[in-house]
Request: fold
Amino acid sequence: MQPAETEKRKNELPAGVPSLSVRALTVAYASGKQSLVALRDLSLSVAAGELVGLVGPNGCGKTTLIRAVTKVVKPVSGEVHLCGDEVALPQAEIARRVAVVPQEPVLPDAFTALECVLMGRTPHLKLLENEGARDFDAARQAMERTGTWELAERRVDELSGGERQRVVVARALAQETPVLLLDEPTAHLDIGHQASVLGLMRALCRDERKAVLAVVHDLTLGAAYCDRLVMLRPGGTVAAEGSAEAVLRPELLEAVYGTATDVFSHPRTGRPVVAPRTEGG
Reply:
């Protein structure tokens, strides 16, 4: 079976089967003689063609969820399914189904941007196999989409923080997986590139039926670009999920984040805009 056919088959799931499904997931870390629960009985799903924003205060388990989905951490209980199969798959097969943009990406300083993006093709190569024309085409397309092709021959240590972030996004796109997990993909980016990256994610969902779960700290950005939001509270449980209008309510935000906010409708789109309530306001 050709690679393109394999990818098409993975995206064509039976009706009602989400691309990513997490069921009653509990994850705990050892902390001295005690166990610190990071996620407790958490369930969520992301369908093909859907961009879901994962929001919540620092330390509520957002990054832990991404690490559990990719088998970096082992859950205490619960299940994770990727494209209909439980995550008991070999690591290489997981990497062919889900690509990750980590919160703190590490890139080799001596590599060029193109070499870093080509690393995303590794799951599709056999042991000791070199990249071929198909891999270079995938890398170039990913870099053109993220506006990094002009950086292709630049070394990583010559790139700004924002440029490195976009290279990491390009690496994930070059991996050509049906599921994308993005941990703060707009970190280090200016407002123009934030809009570009999130707009690209929406286009991938619409045009290629990707399933995208993105950790987003900017609630207004999340409301503007995501189809649904899932809000976690401290302790790693779901506080609310649904449309941005249903989730981003002032009383819920104050209960979860511990700070008063004002929420109003964007004058052009009607989507929620969230602002901290200033003193005297």
